[in-house]
Amino acid sequence: MAVQDKIEIVEALNLYGFALDAHQWDLFDRVFSEDVVAEFGPAGAAWTGLADFKRSSAEFHETLDSHQHTMMGHLVHVDGDKANAFSYGNWLLIREGAGGGSTWVGTGWYDDELIRTDRGWRINHRVCRLMSWRGNPSVPQPNQEHKPDTKTHIMRDHSEAGR
Questions:
Q1: How far is residue 4 from each of residues 7, 11, 115, 120, 143, measured CA to CA in Å?
Q2: 10-residue stretch averages of pLDDT, the chain, 163 residues long
Q3: Neighbouring C-beta atoms of residue 119, cutoff 10 Å
């Protein structure tokens, strides 16, 4: 069963990027728990609750002309009805007409805690950290709760600090 659990968890992790890029916000229901806590360093914000997270994600991403989110390098550990997952991410944001270039590319990681629900595995707590970026920093513009933060993080430092 552990292999099937891991397959389902990786599917949920990958579905997140698809939901963002396709603007299919209802797919977040298949990725996150209702009481999710989502801490996004690159957004300079955190959300508690799926409804607020979906709304805010839509508000920010709908201001862009295009974007692509890629998740990879998944590591999954299942312990009964709880799991931890780690993934690397790449984010390409495009805003035409932004002075200084139309693209911003970020790389970083997702550190997730998941729970098994009666509807399948859901992310209950997500921490996203930015590792590097390049391009035009004005492409990810502030919008509602989003206050883009280009502070980069070194995974080794987080590991040594026990995070």
A1: 5, 11, 15, 11, 39
A2: 93 98 98 97 91 95 95 97 98 91 96 98 97 93 77 86 84
A3: 9
Query: Which pTM was predicted?
Result: 0.92
| Amino acid of residue 76 | V
Among 162, 139, 137, 163, smallest CA distance to 151 is for 137
Give the whole-angstrom CA distance, residue 77 versus residue 51: 27
Give every CB contact of residue 154 below 8 A, 6+ residues apart in sequence. 131
Structure tokens belonging to residue 17: 């990027």
Write the DSSP string, 48-67. Answer: ESHHHHHHHHHHHHTTSSEE
Question: What's the pLDDT score for residue 155?
Answer: 83
What pLDDT score does 1 carry? 66
Long-range contacts of 139-143 (CB under 8 A, 24+ apart): 139/64, 139/93, 139/94, 139/95, 139/98, 139/101, 139/102, 139/103, 139/104, 140/42, 140/60, 140/93, 140/104, 141/63, 141/95, 143/59, 143/60, 143/63
